[in-house]
Design a protein that fits this description.
The protein is an alpha/beta fold. The chain is 22% helix and 27% strand. It contains ten helices and 29 strands. Helix 6 (255-269) runs parallel beside helix 8 (313-328) and helix 9 (362-377) packs parallel to helix 10 (409-416). The two termini are 26 Å apart. Bound molecules: alpha-L-arabinofuranose.
Length: 536
């Protein structure tokens, strides 16, 4: 839970006059002060590294061009997978990648994506613009990609248009170490050793593009898939080494969604040995309207504040569904995985609207930090999340255009937050203050802290306010701070973006913070995300 105290901050807003440039008078706002209390002796749950998961769907140029260019491409690649994208993703320590969809997963038939490249069927991708799908990027290529970036597989199996037999054979093909016909076929296709599958998603949005099922109908399918889709990898024989994830609610806390969660969790409470799940998924996008007129670049403070207000609904939605799960699963055995989240804006002009191409601005960086903070505060239940999506689609880490690649502001936040992966949550209490624009009022600041295995205390602080800096003064207990270093991410405007021509417009820079006794102080620039490493 958020550890905010709702006391009123008495800090005074002071207007200062700065003389800048050639005698030009610039009015600057002096910072208010916000105090944090960080008690490193009180540890909470582990922040599961899997909340930093990614999602790569066969959608637009998310896989083809974004990841896969083919071995004969002039774009530097290793066995068809682009080297620049791999190098960038390695720095994020991506814990898992959800694939092949999304809606596409319920159209996907794995057999079409194995075997000699020139024999693979070319099909259509009806979910995403009806474009052709070459199946050149199939199971082996996906596993190769994971090996190159050092990540794990989150496979979504086809419940909508597939069968339990098809899914069960896919898992046998991938994971058996025995010389079965499928195991031998995998070996003949170039991989003698069994693959590892960390997560098995049983369907995707089965209440909508995954088959328009009722909760009861989906539940009957879930029981069958959970029973018959097995992982045979000898190294994964403990069931908890492949987590089975049920389709959960969509983005809301209205009865349609709470009833879905109720149905699955109530059944789970009475489950028998023959079926089980380890997680329930939740999809929640930050969207104001689906056929959006809201642009991803070229907007002002009104849209900045509206989208950040919308993104904070994540707190309430997770709270609502966690409370239902608590009733049926007080020991929190079943995780909540927010396995699709992120911003959803209007497609960029000139792009195929079915490809969901959008720019990624400083607003997205702040939005990402606020969501990651929410997941961390719910670390006891939220043990996975997958941002939508990894490359070229929606709130991407990376944008590509043929041989060019650019890292987005969201990428930088994920990179700055790497130390929070598997770190232990440390409670922070603070008065967030308020930021108001028009009829939108938001918490002005946000903060989380965590301790890593080496005893370093990590503090992430976000200043949502796009005009006022803020002085942060963090009083620490349970650690004697010796040094503090850190970096901050900000830029000139709320809609600043990185482009192929100007890739460094939004990029982290070192921040100057000080330690005095048990106190760490730092000034946060407006609209910024800062991560500090406090070493004892
Ligand atoms: O991420 C794009 C789409 O959004 C996914 O395919 C689907 O699951 C969701 O509706």
């Amino acid at each position: 839970m958020a550890q905010r105290r709702v006391t009123v901050l008495t800090g005074l807003l002071v207007l200062g006059l700065l003389l800048a440039g050639a005698g030009r008078a610039v009015i600057a706002l002096a910072a208010d002060r916000i105090e944090l209390a960080v008690d490193a002796s009180k540890s909470g749950p582990k922040i599961d590294r899997n909340i930093f998961g990614q999602f790569a769907e066969h959608l637009g140029t998310g896989v083809y061009e974004g990841v896969w260019v083919g071995a004969s491409s002039p774009i530097p690649n290793t066995r068809g997978i682009r080297n620049d994208v791999v190098a960038a993703l390695k720095a994020l320590k991506v814990p898992n990648v959800r694939w092949p969809g999304g809606c596409f997963a319920d159209d996907y038939h794995w057999r079409k994506g194995i075997g000699p490249a020139d024999k693979r069927s070319v099909i259509l991708n009806p979910s995403w613009g009806g474009v052709t799908e070459s199946n050149a990027f199939g199971s082996h290529e996906f596993m190769d990609f994971l090996g190159q970036i050092g990540s794990e597989a989150y496979l979504s199996v086809n419940v909508g248009s597939g069968t339990p037999q098809e899914a069960s054979e896919w898992l046998e093909y991938l994971t058996t170490g025995q010389p079965t016909t499928l195991g031998k076929e995998r070996a003949a296709n170039g991989h003698a050793a069994p693959f590892k599958v960390a997560y098995l998603g049983i369907g995707n949005e089965s209440w909508d593009c995954g088959g328009n099922m009722t909760a009861e109908y989906y539940l009957s399918q879930l029981k069958i898939y959970s029973r018959f889709v097995r992982n045979f990898n000898p190294a994964q024989q403990d069931r908890n080494q492949m987590l089975k994830i049920a389709v959960g609610p969509g983005g809301g806390d209205e009865p349609r969604w709470t009833q879905w969660t109720e149905t699955i969790m109530k059944a789970w409470q009475r489950h028998t040995w023959s079926w089980d799940i380890d997680g329930l998924s939740l999809h929640n996008y930050t969207v104001i309207d689906w056929v959006s007129k809201y642009k991803s670049v070229g907007f002002g403070e009104a849209e900045y504040s509206r989208f950040l207000k919308a993104t904070l609904d994540m707190e309430k939605i997770i709270g609502t569904h966690s409370a239902i799960m608590d009733r049926y699963d007080p020991q929190k055995k079943v995780a909540l995985l927010v396995d699709e989240w992120g911003s959803w804006y209007a497609p960029l002009p000139g792009s195929n609207p079915a490809f969901l191409v959008q720019q990624n601005s400083l607003r997205d960086a702040v939005l990402a930090a606020l969501n990651l903070n929410i997941f961390a505060r719910h670390a006891d239940r939220v043990r996975g999340a997958n941002i939508a999506q990894m490359v070229n689609v929606l709130q991407a880490m990376i944008l590509t255009d043929k041989a060019k690649m650019v890292l987005t502001p969201t990428y930088h936040v994920f990179r700055m937050y790497v130390p929070f992966q598997d770190a232990t949550f440390v409670p922070v209490t603070f008065d967030a203050g308020t930021y108001t624009h028009g009829d939108v009022t938001l918490p002005r600041t946000d903060a989380i802290a965590a301790k890593d295995a080496a005893g370093v205390l990590w503090l992430a602080v976000t200043n949502v306010d796009p005009t006022r800096p803020v002085d942060i003064s963090a009083r620490l207990a349970g650690i004697s701070p010796r040094t503090v270093t850190g970096e901050t991410l900000t830029a000139g405007a709320v809609d600043s973006v990185n482009t192929f021509e100007a890739p460094g417009t939004v990029k982290p820079k070192p921040v100057s913070a000080t330690v005095q006794g048990d106190q760490v102080s730092v000034t946060l620039e407006p609209k910024s995300v800062t991560v500090l490493a406090i070493r004892p």
